[in-house]
Amino acid sequence: MMNVDDSLLMSYVDGELSPEQRAEVEAAIAHSDELAARAAALQASVLPYRAAYDRQTVPPVPESLTRRIEELVSVSTPQERSGPRGRRRFPLQWAAAAFVAGAICSGVLTGYLGGVNPLKPGVDPWVQSVADYQVLYGRDTVANIREDRASTEQVLADIHQRDGMPVDVPDLRQAGLKFKRVQRLNYHDRPLIQMVYLPERGDPVALCVIEENQGDAPVRSSQIGEMKTVTWRANRLAYVLLAKAPSLDLQAIGNSIAGGKTAPLYGSANADKSRDS
Asked: How far from chain centre, in Å, is Cα 245?
């Protein structure tokens, strides 16, 4: 049986394998719970960014960032690449937009855009980065994503076990928000959990969570550029709920989540932890 590493699994979830390779990977997944879990986690990290950017105006890209991307492309991408991970060249403008969308994963977004969208006084840097990232989301980014309970529970289990973060997905259907997906991102080598919801109309809403070694803090509203934000801290976790939608009462939704009045959409992480102890 073929050796299935993460590179090959990513090619599989990206739909880049030949039919023969795909069949071999699927056979390997069917015989390995570990491979199935890794494939589910990788699948949960895929977002249709290309389709989203094709259908919306990409924000202006700073000249310094354009130069930097050209350098990165020239160093890391040969003119011709072979193998299952080979990628076709694509427009630099789309590459720059994709870089901005993914920059939060390495914690560099604020540094690159500091001159364009400087840090607002009193705003935590991680919240600023999340807001800069989330502003790129349009309705088309997540509208076609189907909620996948199995993948969501696998991602949550990974977060609970690997990161020790008792994060649940709040059920916000009563607020008119439909859950779409959860992702485990990174901010300066710290896990950052992003849960995305979609209202009946308008742009997506996100709830993001990061571990912070600080005391609890009450729910507080703020405006960061186009984004309305609601932040709070509890039990060494920091939260931000944010959206562009002006009609949503984010303060009320944040108060409900922070006050424990919102039930989890799936099983509770705290209940799982109690069963394990």
From this structure: 19
Strand order in the sheet with 177-187: 177-187, 190-199, 205-211, 237-243, 227-234, 217-224
Mean pLDDT by 10 residues, the chain (277 residues): 76 85 86 81 64 56 63 51 42 53 48 47 88 89 90 92 93 96 91 95 95 94 93 96 89 96 79 44
Residue 217 to residue 80: CA distance in whole angstroms: 53
Residues 139-276, CATH architecture: 2-Layer Sandwich (3.30)
pTM of the model: 0.60
Domain residue spans of the chain: 6-44, 49-126, 139-276
CB 42 within 8 A of CB 9: yes
Residue 136: how many CB atoms within 10 A of its CB? 17
Contacts of the segment 59-66: beta carbons below 8 A, 24+ positions apart: 59/97, 59/100, 59/136, 61/93, 61/96, 61/97, 61/100, 62/112, 62/113, 62/115, 62/116, 64/112, 65/96, 65/99, 65/100, 65/112, 66/92, 66/96
